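Appendix B. Extra example for self-study. Work through it before the problem class; the solution is given directly after the inputs so you can check yourself.
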Amino acid sequence: MRYELYYWPEIQGRGEFIRLALEEAGADYVDVARREGKRGVAAMMKFIDDKSSARPPFAPPYLKAGKLVIAQTANILLYLGPRLNLSPRDEGGSLWAHQLQLSIADLMVEIHDTHHPIGSGLYYEDQKPEAKRRTEDFWRHRVPKNLGYFERVLQNNGGQHMVGRRLSYVDLSIFQIIAGLRYAFPKRMKRFEKKVPGLVALHDRVAQRPRIKAYLASERRIAFNEWGIFRHYKELDA
Amino acid sequence: MRYELYYWPEIQGRGEFIRLALEEAGADYVDVARREGKRGVAAMMKFIDDKSSARPPFAPPYLKAGKLVIAQTANILLYLGPRLNLSPRDEGGSLWAHQLQLSIADLMVEIHDTHHPIGSGLYYEDQKPEAKRRTEDFWRHRVPKNLGYFERVLQNNGGQHMVGRRLSYVDLSIFQIIAGLRYAFPKRMKRFEKKVPGLVALHDRVAQRPRIKAYLASERRIAFNEWGIFRHYKELDA
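Solution. Structure tokens for the complete assembly:
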């Protein structure tokens, strides 16, 4: 089946978790808004805003898979996991992988809110003092708690994979979290990384997988930038 | 099967979405930390912090179902849905119900952050100006967008149920969202409700279902309070 991914063409954002899974699996997919540019974005938003749609997505990303239209990043991965051979097939293992992905999704909200603690519709420049306060709290409390949790899960599972004995979409997502935090907060992350050696090693292993390595070197991988969720603002990386 | 729900005993919080589903279904369950008080909370936290656990929850709520331990509210409902007859059984319907529940989970984060925009570990009193700004943005942009979306989904589905032709856990969750917003922001909500008449009517129908009605009148329903996610602070309800 040819999957159609609909997501903002200028950012990695939440869509990147889906792109990484599709790329690792060598799946047949189209990144529609990237392929079609402005026309693709218009089509994407038209579909979301369609007043008569029975099952409209709330927001990108969404995936068209045959007759199904699936939104919410973790939900898309729940669907794709067994089909791309990137999650356990037993119910307990599938729920466990999904549970971890949902905690990653929660962390992404917190990462976004470091630069947008007041409103996602406002400019960063309009909430800089609040962003500074939130970022301090994030690094003091939330990063240690969240990454510490994922490190513990990894170590208790043997240190190689987050879930089971094989690569899963959770491993790919942890790669993306580490890569993104390194981009957004290079100084803070450099100091912090020694506390999560397992996650850092997992990041490095994922980056060396042949298909991921080729993807990261290709034009399909959008560079990190200050429109996405991971943003580098020097003043927040003190 | 007797389900064991683990959640904070003093608040509705995220656990309430699970409680409502279990109550509506007349399921055999124990609300462990409520039954056992401080000892129950200690056991809950000990389990979460257990350094050797293979599949530790990141945070409450979690559900023990036989040998499975499942965390993340929407994930628990994904598991319970078909078993409690509260979600469609086909894959597309199940994913759609879950997708809506994930958007409700996202909304809950935004509701929480109206009073805690800077840090969940800080007191509200330490982030009051920021809370005021965030609340303004929330009511100007986020409530219309989120509840407007759910209203549209409901109306496009015939106005009676959020998903399919029967009651689902999504309907119960919408009830909770409306009830909570009424508690936290009575004035703002009173003005806003005319824009989402379908959701309000759905709330009222759910409240009148025999088992839900009995539950709401029982001691098992914890009252809303200022420790939970929905909090009433007069100055935020201007």
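Self-check: Chain B has a mean pLDDT of 97. If your reasoning did not lead you there, revisit section 3.
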